[in-house]
Amino acid sequence: MILWTFRHTKPYNPNDVCYGQLDFDVSPTFPEESSSAIVDFLKAGPKPTKLYSSPLLRCLRLAEEVSKATRLPIEKVDSLKEINFGTWEGQKLTAVPRAEMAGWMQDLRGFRFPNGENFYDVDNRVGAFLDTLPDDGEFLWVTHAGVIAALQHFACGLPDSDFVEGKFSYTMVNRFELKRNAEGHFRGSFTKVHDGIQMPPLPLG
């Protein structure tokens, strides 16, 4: 299987709050961000037959442009949503209770956000959807950093100690090459096709 992934463009987040499943729209830089990513994607010679998108607006805006370029209809998939940060959603990270922040710092992928998910939950729901796809297909996802990182971790062997969720650029495009293993799960490798606007560092601690 060949799987292409687009991360959404920079969201409109003027108050700089934590967002996972908060449904932000895109920033004014959307036209330039989306067009440059799509140009590099098309240069890579993709031949996807299905276009799947997170239903969150910041992904759907980009998926609409990708749909025009590929002539593929958009299929919305809840499994491709970003992590649910629970009570952290809409808060500045500097306002999060110190005990909760310390708990996250001790276990970046395993910490369960209050009333929300942890990154292993994202691994599980993304992996379950991935396993429903045909072995010999070529697919395209427009999604989020947490979902793309999940693929890199559970499908490509990236160690948990490498917390990449906070390092990805907006509109990053990756190409995954995956084969089903003896247990029926897709495993493989990935390459970056496009790098977009780098995120500012997370204010951790």
- Low-pLDDT windows of residues: none
Give the overall form: globular
How many domains comprise the coordinates? 1
Q: Please give the largest β-sheet.
A: 6 strands, mixed
Oligomer: single chain
**Second rung of CATH, namely the architecture:** 3-Layer(aba) Sandwich
- Side by side, the strands of the main sheet go 3-2-4-1-6-7
Q: Roughly how much helix do the residues carry, as a percent range? A: 25-40%
Spell out the helices and strands N to C.
EHEHEHHEHEEEE
In brief, what are we looking at here?
The protein is of the alpha/beta class and 205 residues long. It is 29% helix and 20% strand.
Give a written overview of the molecule.
- The chain has five helices and eight strands, in the order βαβαβααβαββββ.
- It has 205 residues and is of the alpha/beta class.
- It has one domain: Rossmann fold (3-Layer(aba) Sandwich).
- It has a six-stranded mixed beta sheet with strand order 3-2-4-1-6-7, sandwiched between helices. Strands 5-8 form a two-stranded antiparallel sheet.
